[in-house]
Amino acid sequence: MIEKKIKFGLFSWADLTVKDTTPLKAFYKEIFGWKEHPVDMKDEEGAYQDFAMMADETTPVGGICHQRGVNHNIPSQWIMYVSVENVETTLQKCLQLGGELIHGNKKKDGAYGFVIVKDPQGHIFGFGNM
Questions:
Q1: DSSP string, 59-116
Q2: Does residue 38 carry a pLDDT above 50?
Q3: DSSP letters of 18-59?
Q4: pLDDT at 130
Q5: Are 114 and 81 within 8 A, CB to CB?
Q6: pTM of whole model > 0.85?
Q7: Backbone angles phi, psi at 14, to 5 degrees
Q8: Out of 14, 21, 90, 116, which could bridge 62 as a Cys pair, Cβ 3.0 to 4.6 Å?
Q9: Residues 6+ apart with CB under 8 A from 61
Q10: Rounded distance, CA 103 to CA 19, Å?
Q11: What is the radius of gyration, based on Cα positions, of the chain?
């Protein structure tokens, strides 16, 4: 089980979204000693797995995800995520200050769980209930 203490305003997660996770997952496992924790996914093409990468059995460091399904339009680069208390409020503030919504992942209740945005100078990052 992955447990994590959340502190708002800190970078708390990173994802790399790519066409093929296999070679990059192996690369990061080899250079950093990370372990993989499969995350079952499904899209119109069928079932597949994304991966939470772990420093050890209980310490997540980030994810390596396929660029398909809910992640089909996410840029192929490491994206850092900041934990926030309220995604909707933070998103509105971001947009008012010149940010741009790139991708949003909504929960079953219709609220955003996390978003990926571009700052006014074009830098991409995410935030959510991480």
A1: -EEEEEEESSGGGTTS-SSEEEEEE-S-HHHHHHHHHHTT-EEEEEEE-TTSSEEEEE
A2: yes
A3: ES-HHHHHHHHHHHH--EEEEEEEEETTEEEEEEEEESSSS-
A4: 74
A5: yes
A6: no
A7: -145, 140
A8: 14
A9: 14, 32, 34, 53, 54, 55
A10: 17
A11: 15
* Residue at token pair 């502190």: 7
Whether 110 shows a pLDDT value over 60: the answer reads yes
User: 21: which 2 tokens?
Assistant: 């996770």
- 47: which 2 tokens? 């079932």
Amino acid at 11: F
Task: Return the half-sphere exposure (C-beta side, CA atoms, 13 A cut-off) of residue 106.
Answer: 5
Question: How confident is the prediction for the chain on average, in pLDDT?
Answer: 92
**Are residues 84 and 127 in contact, defined by beta-carbon separation less than 8 angstroms?**
yes
Per-residue tokens: 48: 């597949």
The b-or-e profile of 17-26 (16+ CB within 10 A means b, else e) is: bbeebeeebe
Residue type present at position 87? V
- For residue 94, what is the enclosing H or E element? helix 87-96
Angle, CA of 18, 22 and 27, to the nearest 5°: 90
